[in-house]
């Protein structure tokens, strides 16, 4: 219909902010100029946020992405996003507009609802996932999660066994470190400790995704879109974990509320361990 958004002043400090009401998955955007005018935007950038306070710029090919806008007031220019965005708030930021007019925009945002199970950790808590049996011995492990951290250090998850096996994922000075030890029953003190670090500035209060895939000694460790492939040391192919995995911290056995290392302070979302939705399990007791 008639009209559209046009700010009082046309300069590069303007934006149009959209509140989608809830966190959703945005897959495409479209723009038009202002109806019946010479006001349209020829190029623009997008920013997105969960809170309306901390913003990220939409990027492609490791660069801030500039979208091609309109060449008249009425044609719709549609862009499918190469990477979908999970966000509640969007900002359309005009970069250039019609020389003979002002900034003018009509917008549409396309997407779908986003299923999300989130656990909030306050830096003094952890979530324990107890196994049905005393020992979990695995040749293959897949762990996936997203996290948003308030601080640069903290344990995201940890499991250990009496033979010396362990797996630990922790933030250290804004970087993510995966520590893995596939112990060997024959060689208790074999040099089988492996540590790999990925990412930086991961304590920026934005969501980051993690995927750990282990098959025997081969491990793929992915943080956001960067993957490290490595092979663990030692002779063993299986990981032996006793009793439980802890998420958000490493509790000291027999001492409730006491932790070995700094706890995670932030949110963990859609946490899966070998196909088990841990947060959904916690919600349902």
Written overview of the protein:
The chain has 285 residues and is mainly β. It folds into two domains: 16-113, Jelly Rolls, CATH 2.60.120; 118-284, Jelly Rolls, CATH 2.60.120. The protein is built from one helix and 21 strands. Strands 9, 11, 16, 17, 18, 20 and 21 form a seven-stranded antiparallel β-sheet that branches. The model has no long low-confidence stretch (mean pLDDT 91). Its main location: membrane.
Give start-end ranges of low-pLDDT stretches: none
Radius of gyration from the alpha-carbon trace, in angstroms: 24 Å
The helical percent reads: under 10%
The largest β sheet comes out as: 7 strands, antiparallel
Q: What is the CA–CA distance across the termini?
A: 51 Å
Fraction of residues in β-strands: over 45%
| Nearest-integer average pLDDT | 91
CATH architecture of the largest domain: Sandwich
Number of strands: 21
Structural class: mainly beta
Q: Tell me, what's the shape?
A: elongated
Strand-and-helix sequence, N→C? EEEEEEEEEEEEEEEEEEEEEH
Q: Which fold name is given in CATH as the topology of the largest domain?
A: Jelly Rolls
The tally of helices reads 1
The CATH class of the largest domain turns out to be Mainly Beta
Protein name: CNTP5 protein
InterPro entries: ConA-like_dom_sf (IPR013320), FA58C (IPR000421), Galactose-bd-like_sf (IPR008979), Laminin_G (IPR001791), Neurexin-related_CASP (IPR050372)
Pfam families: F5_F8_type_C, Laminin_G_2
Membrane topology: Single-pass type I membrane protein
